[in-house]
Design brief:
about 110 residues, alpha+beta, 5-stranded antiparallel beta sheet, 3 helices, binds guanosine-5'-monophosphate, binds zinc ion
Length: about 110
């Protein structure tokens, strides 16, 4: 989609530090990391938010979870613990309107979030 920063990363129109890529999913380092490990895992298809997941595209979630598990292992946080977060909508703190899963780890994460 035009004017979507994550679609531009997918299309290599703007650079990102890519951690994983296949035909359906891409993961890259967040430009403004909130933890020692802060990756964004996104579908290559432009889906605006988790509210647009349905029967047809729901298989993507399984792929994203598989990628998150593998990245957690690669970054040695699979046993220590991590957080997989999907901010949704204005009050949820979503600032980029392309579905993304934050994989956060490498430090103790507080709860509740701000
Ligand atoms: P949200 O606030 O929508 O949950 O998360 C959007 C995330 O995208 C933020 O953590 C922000 O730092 C990250 N982000 C925004 N623009 C870019 C960019 O151009 N490159 C990268 N790597 N991350 C970005
Ligand atoms: Zn997009």
């Amino acid at each position: 989609m035009m004017d979507c920063v994550f679609c531009k990363i997918i299309n290599k129109e703007i650079p990102a530090k890519i951690a994983y890529e296949d035909d359906q999913v891409i993961a890259f380092h967040d430009i403004n990391p909130q933890a020692p490990i802060h990756l964004l895992i996104i579908p290559k298809k432009h889906i605006a938010s988790i509210m647009e997941i349905d029967e047809e595209n729901g298989g993507l979630l399984k792929e994203i979870v598989r990628v998150a598990q593998n990245l957690a292992k690669e970054n040695n946080i699979d046993k220590k613990g991590f957080r997989l977060v999907v901010n949704t909508g204005e009050e949820g703190g979503q600032t980029v309107q392309h579905l993304h899963f934050h994989l956060l780890g490498g430090r103790f994460l507080t709860w509740p979030p701000g």
